[in-house]
Specification:
The complex is a heterodimer of chains A (116) and B (382). By secondary structure, chain A is an all-beta fold. Chain A has strands spanning 2-3, 5-10, 16-17, 32-37, 39-48, 60-66, 72-77, 86-92, 95-100. Classes of the chains: A mainly beta (116), B alpha/beta (382).
C-alpha cells in the first residue's frame, strides 16, 4: 500500500474528480493533473457481511468518505473508524483504503472478522 | 395518438435456472405469453426492443433471428433498471413516427447467483477498478451507504423500511407470479440477517431468472373488451449530477415538474405507483422526487401511506417480493403491473377503478448511486 490516494484536478477550473473523467463536468476541459489526497472524514460505513455467489466470504467494511475538497469517495476501512473519524488514506491497485489518522498503515489482506 | 400498450406477458420466475434454461428461453416464454395476451400474430411484429445482462454474446438481431422475427425497427438498451422505461419511450416514438407499427418490448435474465456476482463486480470500469477491490458487495454495499444517509437525513428507522417490505409482501400475496407470497411479519423483518449494514435480507432485492414482454401498437389493435393503455407522458434522465450529490435525489427530480405538466395531471390524481424497488430507500427517494410525498415526510409516508396500504405502491409485490429477473425485466414488470391494473385485470390485488398510474425506472449504479432514471404516466383509455 502507498500513502495517499490519487484524484484528478481539472487544469481549467480546478474541480477535483474521482474516478478520472475524459472531460471535466464543470468546464469540459480535457486536461487533468493527478493530485494526492492523504486524509478524509468518514460519513457513513457499512459492514459487507455477505457477497452473492461467494460461500467463504470474509466480512469487510466500506465507508463513504469526504475529502477536504468536498469530494466523496468510497473507501475500504481497515479498522473500526466510524462516522466523523478522520482517516489516513492509502492506495492499493487503484482502490482507496483507510485507517484512523495516526494509526499504523493497513495490512494488504482484508480483516478476517468484522469490527465490533 | 397512434401507440398504446395492448398486451403483456411474463415467463415463470425461478430463483435458480435449471439446465437448459437461459435468458433466451425465458424471453421466449414471455414473448409467447405477450403475443397471446395481445392476440397478435408474431408475423405482425415489425419492431423489437430488448435489454438483458445475459443475452451476450448474442445481440438484439440474434434474438430476432431466434424468435423468427423480421423487423424494420430494432433496439438494444443497456440502461439496467431504467432500460424498460427507455425502451418504452423509444417504442412509442417508433410507432408515432411510422418507423414500426407493432413493437415487442422484452427483457430477461438468467444469470444465476454466481453470474450475478460477476456482473456486480465488473458492472463498469469504476466498479471493477475502484469498488470491487474493496469488497464492496456489489449494489448491496453501494445502497447500504445510501440508505444510511437517508436514515440520517430523514430520521428513518429500520422498522420504517420494514413496513414497506411487509406491505409489498402483502400485495404479492395477490400475485400468483411473485416468488415470495407468504406474509412477512415485523419480527421476521427485524430479525433477518444483515447483508450490508443497515440492509438486511429483506431489503436486498432477490435475484431470479425470468423475463417480461409487452406489445405496443395502435390502440385499435387491442383485444376486444379490453382498454388499451396509453402513455400520457414519459421522461428520462441520464447522469443527472455526475455522482457529486448524496444519491437521495434521483434523476427524476430533474424532470418531475415537466412530466406532470406534459401529462396534464397532478401527483394527487394518481391511483397507483409502480416504483423501481431495487432497495426500499430508492422507493422513497423516487416517490419524493415525483412529488407524491407532498410534505417531504418520508417517515410518515413509509409508515402510513405505504405501510398501511392507503396508497397503492408496487401492487405486484415489487421486485422485493415478485423477484428481480435482472434490472431490465424487473423494470418491465413494473410497467406490466401498471397496465394490468389500468386494464382492471390484476385479480386479487386490483386497485378499484384504477385510471392513472405512474411507473418508474432507476439504475446503472455508476459509482456511488444510480445514474439513470425515468418515469411515465400511464392512463386507461376508455
Amino acid at each position: 500500500m502507498t500513502r495517499g490516494f490519487t484524484v484528478w484536478r481539472c487544469m481549467g477550473c480546478g474541480a477535483v474528480l474521482f474516478p478520472e473523467r475524459l472531460l471535466c463536468p464543470r468546464c469540459h476541459g480535457a486536461a487533468f493533473a493527478p493530485e494526492r489526497v492523504e486524509e478524509g472524514v468518514v460519513e457513513e460505513t457499512s459492514t459487507i457481511r455477505h457477497m452473492i455467489g461467494q460461500a467463504d466470504w470474509k466480512p469487510r467494511v466500506i465507508a463513504n468518505v469526504r475529502t477536504k475538497d468536498g469530494l466523496h469517495i468510497t473507501v475500504g476501512l481497515r479498522d473500526d473508524s466510524g462516522p466523523g473519524t478522520v482517516i489516513d488514506l492509502y492506495e492499493e491497485a487503484g482502490a482507496p483504503f483507510g485507517v484512523a489518522k495516526g494509526s499504523p498503515p493497513p495490512t494488504e489482506s482484508p480483516p478476517a472478522e468484522p469490527p465490533p | 395518438m397512434r401507440a398504446a400498450i395492448i398486451g403483456v406477458g411474463q415467463s415463470r420466475y425461478t430463483r435458480r435456472p435449471e439446465s437448459g434454461q437461459s435468458a433466451h428461453t425465458f424471453i421466449r416464454d414471455a414473448v409467447v405469453a405477450a403475443l397471446r395476451d395481445a392476440e397478435i400474430d408474431a408475423r405482425d411484429i415489425d419492431g423489437m426492443a430488448v435489454a438483458s445482462f445475459s443475452l451476450a454474446p448474442d445481440t438484439a438481431v440474434d434474438l430476432a433471428w431466434k424468435l423468427g422475427l423480421s423487423l424494420k425497427w430494432l433496439l438494444q438498451d443497456t440502461n439496467g433498471g431504467s432500460s424498460a422505461m427507455n425502451m418504452l419511450g423509444h417504442a412509442l416514438r417508433g410507432i408515432e413516427t411510422g418507423a414500426a407499427s407493432v413493437v415487442l418490448v422484452t427483457a430477461g435474465d438468467a444469470t444465476g447467483l454466481a453470474g450475478y456476482g460477476k456482473i456486480a463486480a465488473s458492472y463498469n470500469i469504476a466498479t471493477r477498478d475502484h469498488l470491487a477491490p474493496l469488497g464492496h458487495g456489489g449494489p448491496n454495499g453501494v445502497y447500504a451507504l445510501v440508505t444510511a444517509r437517508q436514515m440520517k437525513k430523514y430520521g428513518l428507522e429500520k422498522a420504517d423500511y420494514g413496513r414497506m417490505a411487509i406491505a409489498q409482501r402483502a400485495w404479492a400475496a395477490g400475485n400468483p407470479n411473485a416468488v415470495y407470497r407468504a406474509p412477512l411479519t415485523m419480527e421476521e423483518y427485524l430479525g433477518a440477517p444483515l447483508v450490508a449494514d443497515p440492509l438486511n435480507r429483506y431489503d436486498c432485492v432477490p435475484v431470479v431468472a425470468g423475463a417480461q414482454a409487452i406489445i405496443l401498437a395502435h390502440p385499435d389493435r387491442c383485444p376486444r373488451g379490453r382498454a388499451p393503455v396509453r402513455v400520457r407522458a414519459i421522461r428520462h434522465s441520464f447522469n443527472y449530477d455526475h455522482q457529486a450529490g448524496d444519491g437521495l435525489q434521483t434523476g427524476i427530480s430533474t424532470f418531475a415538474d415537466e412530466l406532470w405538466r406534459e401529462a396534464g395531471v397532478r401527483p394527487g390524481d394518481i391511483d397507483l405507483a409502480c416504483i423501481y424497488d431495487d432497495y426500499p430507500a430508492m422507493v422513497l427517494a423516487q416517490l419524493n422526487d415525483l412529488g407524491l410525498i407532498p410534505d417531504g415526510d418520508l417517515k410518515r409516508f413509509a409508515q402510513r401511506e405505504i405501510g398501511e396500504r392507503r396508497f397503492p405502491v408496487n401492487t405486484h409485490g415489487g421486485m422485493m417480493s415478485a423477484g428481480q429477473p435482472g434490472g431490465p425485466a424487473g423494470g418491465l414488470n413494473h410497467i406490466s403491473e401498471a397496465v394490468l391494473q389500468l386494464q382492471h385485470r390484476a385479480g386479487a390485488r386490483q386497485v378499484p377503478n384504477a385510471r392513472l398510474a405512474v411507473a418508474t425506472g432507476y439504475g446503472m449504479t455508476m459509482y456511488r448511486y444510480g445514474g439513470t432514471a425515468a418515469a411515465a404516466v400511464l392512463e386507461r383509455m376508455e
